[in-house]
Amino acid sequence: MDYEILFLKALAITVLVETLVLLLIARLALKSPASLFRLIFAGIICSAATLPYLWFIFPRILHDRTAMIVIGELSVVLAEAGLYLLILGVDWKKAFIFSACCNSASMAAGLLVF
């Protein structure tokens, strides 16, 4: 299967998983006042903005798979936390919690599917 097709499948899974996790955490655990629309928008934008870097940029820069995963995932968590901060208007602590939980869940889903 082509790498680009695998990427599109990974993107669909990532958007779905991260958006659902964000909704659950924001609404149930942290009682975020953000609207449902804003949470869904944030979940989609954060995933769509960062996953291409993990699939297309980091592999070209970092040739060691372990380093790529560690540095790539940490970079994505920080970038998405910044986006959650801007889009949802939450503090850094909540933004980081959202990002870490969403990315952990999507990485686990990716390992299960791929």
Task: Name the descriptors.
114 residues; single chain; mainly alpha
Can you describe this structure?
The protein is mainly α. It has one domain (8-113). 87% of the residues lie in helices and 0% in strands. It is built from four helices and no strands. Helix 1 (3-29) crosses helix 2 (36-61), helix 2 packs antiparallel against helix 3 (65-88) and helix 3 packs across helix 4 (92-113). The radius of gyration is 14 Å and the shape is globular. The two termini are 12 Å apart.
What is this structure, in a nutshell?
The protein has 114 residues and is mainly alpha-helical. It is 87% helix and 0% strand.
Estimated helix fraction: over 70%
Give the number of DSSP strands.
0
Mean pLDDT: 94
Q: Give the number of domains.
A: 1
Shape: globular
Classify the secondary structure makeup into a structural class. Answer: mainly alpha
SS strand fraction? under 5%
Order of helices and strands: HHHH
Query: How many helices does DSSP assign?
Result: 4
The major beta sheet can be summarized as: none
N- to C-terminal distance: 12 Å
* Sequence stretches where pLDDT stays below 50 over 5 or more residues: none
Kindly provide the radius of gyration, computed on alpha-carbon positions and rounded to a whole number of angstroms.
Answer: 14 Å
Give the SSE layout.
Blueprint: H1 3-29, H2 36-61, H3 65-88, H4 92-113
Helix pairs in contact: 1-2, 1-4, 2-3, 3-4
